[in-house]
Amino acid sequence: MMRTFGKAVGGGRRGASREPVPLAAVVSRVEPRQSAVLVDLSATGAQLRGSGLPPVGEAVSVTVEGMRALGIVAWADGELCGVAFDVPLPRFELDRLRRDATEASLGFGGVEKTLSVDDWISGLAA
């Protein structure tokens, strides 16, 4: 059974709530690997931002801060895409990533971090 994102019958968009976690992520296809920004995350999926992300239906591996999840690109719109994970993430992984994102934004300003990550993704960072 293939999962899909978007409006479900009867309203509602997602089976699990998402929280902002602006951390650097790696999205892997068979090849090549590419960098992206993890925009938000839930136990069942993630939204990513980057250029040249995989198309809808492509199997991917998403790696963030040592956590790796396999899934399928469920939707794509410009420089954004949504990945539906094959297996839901455990709660402890979600908590750890949220903590990592919070600590990173406290140690390195939120706006500055976001801009730096954007530069890293686009190749502008030295």
Describe this structure in words.
With 126 residues, this protein is an alpha+beta fold. Helix content is 24%, strand content 37%. The protein has 2 helices and 6 strands; from the N terminus they run ββββββαα. Strands 1-2-3-6-5-4 form a 6-stranded antiparallel β-barrel. A hairpin with a 2-residue loop joins β4 and β5. The longest helix is centred in the C-terminal third of the chain and has 17 residues, at 91-107. The chain is globular and about 35 Å long. The model is unreliable at 1-11 (pLDDT under 50).
The portion of residues forming beta strands comes to: 35-45%
Shape: globular
Kindly report how far apart the N and C termini lie: 44 Å
pLDDT averaged over residues? 79
Percent in helix: 10-25%
Largest beta-sheet characterization: 6 strands, antiparallel, barrel
H and E string? EEEEEEHH
Count every helix, treating DSSP H or I runs of 4 or more residues as helices.
2
Q: What gyration radius follows from the Cα positions, in whole Å?
A: 14 Å
Uncertain runs are 1-11
What is the subunit organization of this protein?
single chain
Structural category is: alpha+beta
What's the count of strands?
A: 6
Strand order of the biggest β-sheet: 1-2-3-6-5-4
Task: Write a short abstract of this structure.
By secondary structure, the chain is an alpha+beta fold. Helix content is 24%, strand content 37%.
